[in-house]
Write a structure and sequence with these properties.
Distance between the termini: 46 Å
Number of strands: 0
Structural class: mainly alpha
Number of domains: 1
Helix content: 55-70%
Number of helices: 2
Strand content: under 5%
Length: 88
């Protein structure tokens, strides 16, 4: 199994991707497990409505944090002339 989805554009592992993947995996496993062991009492209909919405929030938050970080890195590189090789 390739773990390239955890790597950024530069090829290194990124903490946002690791934490997002871990948090989403924990959400996927614990939600049904808590319902199965009757630790959370819910109806089937409410579970089917709330669970996908929560999963979407996990994925959206992960994607948003990665996009924000990438945007800030690109802005910092554009503002710093030494990174672009324009230093004198």
């Amino acid at each position: 199994m390739s773990w390239n989805f955890l790597r950024g554009i530069g090829g290194e592992l990124e903490i946002q991707r690791i934490l997002g993947a871990l948090g989403t995996t924990v959400y996927i496993v614990t939600g049904p497990t808590l319902v199965w062991f009757d630790k959370v009492v819910t109806t089937f209909e409410s579970f089917c409505i709330a669970y996908p919405a929560g999963l979407g929030v996990c994925i959206g938050a992960t994607a948003g944090s990665i996009a924000l970080k990438d945007r800030q890195v690109a802005k910092a590189k554009a503002d710093d002339p030494t990174i672009q090789g324009e230093s004198q």
